[in-house]
Specification:
About 20% of the residues lie in helices and about 30% in strands. By secondary structure, it is an alpha/beta fold. It holds the Pfam family GreA_GreB.
Length: about 140
């Protein structure tokens, strides 16, 4: 699986040190060994700017943030919360960071877009339009 991109190069991303550490620990666990999505997520973490929690911009998609985005190809709006795999719940719009769209959105800031191919073969061009911290479970 290749990393999603916009016009060739992926947009710059920012991830908090705490989120990066928790995600790297999950990726290293036996459950996620040799998993293509986990490998793609590790690639995203490798290229991310890692910052302390206090320095994390409020308009950046992180773990347990509510994300508002629009598919620039169709105008369709989406709202979801980016969560760890054990918290995923499609009915509550809680998307795992290990899902392809979850790993694509991690670290993006408001205004950034990313292209992401769906399993149905369609390409979504998601632009982040809003980010708010979700209540911790």
């Amino acid at each position: 699986m290749t990393a999603p991109s916009t016009g060739g190069l992926p947009p710059p991303i920012v991830v908090s040190r705490r989120d990066a550490a928790r995600l790297e620990a999950l990726i290293d666990s036996p459950r996620w060994q040799n998993d293509a999505t986990a490998e793609a997520l590790l690639g995203e973490l490798t290229r991310a700017e890692i910052v302390d929690e206090a320095d994390m911009p409020s308009d950046v998609v992180g773990m347990n943030t509510r994300v508002e985005c629009i598919d620039e190809n169709t105008g369709e709006r989406h709202e979801l919360t980016l969560v760890f795999p054990n918290e995923a719940d499609a009915g509550a719009a809680k998307v795992s960071v290990f899902a392809p769209v979850g790993s694509a959105l991690l670290g993006l800031s408001v205004g950034q877009s990313i292209d992401w191919p769906t399993p149905q073969g369609r390409v979504l061009r998601l632009r982040v339009t809003g980010v708010t911290r979700a209540d911790a479970d």
